């Protein structure tokens, strides 16, 4: 509940500011869009990279990859309820951000010389919301299977993918900065709230294996060595 409120409050506040056309926020958003698209327009290589990233982070590709990870964790590591939680939460995130778009109904940025265009409403950014949700959920999914370095790697990957996706939407001029911020808060908040609920409700009991470093440190898991007595061949 607490995790859900932490993310829901700022997202709701941003949505209200957008719906009520709060002047300072709108002016900041529009100034940022003009500056960002100017940067992209002057650098063809950046525009190419951003368009490729936009395609690679389409929600359908993100969730196909996420589903494959869930299947691997389920089949190879037998974490059935954990994999099911991750898959269901990703599908909820995908659909819930679409509902939020319909509620707010914010128009896309209008740029005189557009770098790129996109259909539908603007708030929150679907690319960002889905990237934040999927990477957070998948990091939580594989967390108990990883050692310290692996955990650092998945957290770093989640931050980089979400951050680059947020910048991509603004520098292509298809979302305002507040749309991207709302997407990050929505995705990460939903993942954290859902995981807290999953950990609180698990009728089968703890399913997580001990972390790899704990298994290695467990004396019971170490092989025993028999020392022969003197005179024994």
Automatic annotation (TrEMBL):
Annotated stretches, region: Disordered: 201-233
Keyword S-adenosyl-L-methionine carried by entry: no
Subcellular location(s) per record: Cell membrane
Domain of life: Bacteria
Pfam family, one: PAP2
Keywords annotated in UniProt: Cell membrane, Hydrolase, Membrane, Transmembrane, Transmembrane helix
Record GO terms (molecular function): hydrolase activity
Domain Phosphatidic acid phosphatase type 2/haloperoxidase, chain residue ranges per copy: 80-195
Membrane topology annotation: Multi-pass membrane protein
Gene3D superfamilies (alphabetical): Phosphatidic acid phosphatase type 2/haloperoxidase
Biased composition (Low complexity): 218-233
Entry's Gene Ontology cellular component terms: plasma membrane
PANTHER family: DECAPRENYLPHOSPHORYL-5-PHOSPHORIBOSE PHOSPHATASE RV3807C-RELATED, SPHINGOSINE-1-PHOSPHATE PHOSPHOHYDROLASE
Record protein name field: Undecaprenyl-diphosphatase
